[in-house]
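Aim 2 progress. For Small ribosomal subunit protein mS41 SAM domain-containing protein, the working sequence is reproduced below.
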Amino acid sequence: MALLRAILQTRTLQANPAPGFSRFYSQSSPYLVKVGIPEFLNAIGKGVENHATKLENEIGDFQKLLVTRTLKLKKLGIPCQQRKLILNYAQKYRLGLWRPRAEPVKAK
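Predicted structure tokens for this construct:
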């Protein structure tokens, strides 16, 4: 009986190592770095960062960039591939699937 109780206790500890917290989190962890338009575009890379000043002047706010449509980006003169990258990463950011790194990756 004591053996059975000990086995059941270890199983419950393994299933939930920290009581009060679920094992899988439904929300992403809070961002450690304040994300603005330049940080967002630098994290995307692939030449998109060249348009940072243009987007900051025209759009202004990062939250507005997240809901910007492709036609607005096209009117600003951003090429098609880079528009696609911005829109794809904005969607991933909104869903919490991607976020800019805290430290930029150094190109070799």
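Residues 80-95 form the longest helix (16 residues). This observation will guide construct design in the next reporting period.
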